Amino acid sequence: MSDAPEVRPPVVTPVRVVIALCLLAPFVAMLWVGSYAKVDPEFIGIPFFYWYQMLWVLISTALTMIAYQLWRRDQRARHGGAK
Question: Keywords in UniProt for this one (predicted)?
Answer without folding.
Answer: Membrane, Transmembrane, Transmembrane helix
